[in-house]
Amino acid sequence: MESRKQHRNKETCTANLNAVKDALYVLNGKWKFPLIIALQDGPKRFNEIQKSLGEITPKILSKELKDLELNEFLVRKVFSTTPVTVTYELTPYSESLDRVINELRDWGLKHRERLVKNRKKESSAAEMKVSL
């Protein structure tokens, strides 16, 4: 913990805060990362993405896809077929999030494990009180 606190000054903290705010601004909401993960196995059409994500509405999905396209994480490709085919595909730039996604996944797994373990402890303690 100490190494994290040393060498911190106001400018460093402000720069770090601004960088995190920028990242959160681009990747805010509950759908950005799941959307990127859903596209990691290749291009998909709108309905395929919606089915893979489950609870997302078409309106929200459309907005999130536009945001990710605007921020250069994915590209929308239109094919002149009948009817027109539109696919969404990750850009090479999206790979810059791979480490972040992996860290979030690992942290999420550990966090869930911790909560389950602590709930079991609380449940066991409550059961012991009742039996006394």
UniProtKB/TrEMBL annotation:
Superkingdom of the source species: Bacteria
Family annotation (SUPFAM superfamilies): Winged helix' DNA-binding domain
Keywords: DNA-binding, Transcription, Transcription regulation
Pfam families: HxlR
Domain named HTH hxlR-type: residues: 13-116
The keyword Transcription regulation appears for this protein: yes
GO molecular function: DNA binding
Keyword Acetylation: no
Gene3D superfamilies found in the cross-reference section: Winged helix-like DNA-binding domain superfamily/Winged helix DNA-binding domain
Protein name, as recorded: DNA-binding transcriptional regulator, HxlR family
Species name: Pedobacter terrae
